[in-house]
Specification:
Number of strands: 0
Number of domains: 1
Number of helices: 5
Radius of gyration: 20 Å
Order of helices and strands: HHHHH
Structural class: mainly alpha
Distance between the termini: 63 Å
Strand content: under 5%
Length: 95
C-alpha cells in the first residue's frame, strides 16, 4: 500500500476469503490470503489487513469477539491438559 492511500485513510478492499478469516478471528490467515492474492510482502499485507480492520467498526467488534473466544477456548484446553497431566502423575506415582 502506498503512502497516498495510507495518508488518505483508504483501506484497500480485501477479498471475501480474507474478510471471512477476519470474522472468524484469524488475522494470520487473512494476511496469508492477502499476500497470495495481491502478491505483496508480509509487512504490506499486514498493514493492509490492519488498515482494513481499523476502517470497519463492525469488523473491529466481531474480530475482537472472535479473538477473545479463541483465547478462551485455548485456555480451556490448556487447563484440561494440565488437569490430565496432574491426574496421570497422581495415578502413576501410586504404582
Amino acid at each position: 500500500m502506498d503512502n497516498a492511500n495510507r495518508k488518505a485513510g483508504a483501506a484497500p478492499p480485501l477479498s471475501i476469503a480474507a474478510i471471512a478469516a477476519l470474522h472468524q478471528g484469524n488475522k494470520i490467515e487473512a494476511i496469508k490470503i492477502v499476500r497470495e492474492e495481491q502478491n505483496i510482502g508480509l509487512k504490506e499485507a499486514k498493514d493492509a489487513v490492519e488498515d482494513y480492520i481499523r476502517s470497519q467498526p463492525t469488523l473491529q467488534s466481531s474480530f475482537a469477539v472472535a479473538q477473545s473466544e479463541t483465547k478462551r477456548t485455548a485456555l480451556r484446553w490448556l487447563v484440561m491438559l494440565i488437569g490430565l497431566a496432574i491426574l496421570a502423575y497422581y495415578f502413576l506415582a501410586k504404582l
